[in-house]
Write a structure and sequence with these properties.
By secondary structure, the chain is an alpha+beta fold. It has one domain (2-77): Glutaredoxin (3-Layer(aba) Sandwich), CATH 3.40.30. Helix content is 41%, strand content 27%. A four-stranded mixed beta sheet has the order 2-1-3-4. The longest helix has 17 residues, at 12-28. It is globular.
Length: 78
């Protein structure tokens, strides 16, 4: 199971990012644990200055916008 964190304050793009990740995981048949991190100090701890950010299994893989579906599929398939 992959642990995926969406880093952001709960803005629209953060919600879209979370929805894209859930949909991609479902399509790939991959089980994920999705967390939404809204604490600014924790977000900055990952070095994210522009949200949404995405952390997969402890590694920052994206920040600063909604990721594309192909990009997300790559994260859940790894």
């Amino acid at each position: 199971m992959k642990n995926i964190k969406v880093l952001g304050t709960g803005c629209r793009n953060c919600e879209i990012t979370a929805n894209v990740i859930v949909a991609a995981a479902r399509q790939a048949g991959v089980e994920i644990e999705l967390e939404k991190i809204t604490d600014i100090a924790e977000i900055m701890g990952y070095g994210v200055m522009s949200t949404p950010g995405v952390v997969v299994d402890g590694k920052l893989v994206h920040s600063g916008g909604v990721p594309g579906p192909d990009q997300v599929r790559g994260w859940v398939a790894d």
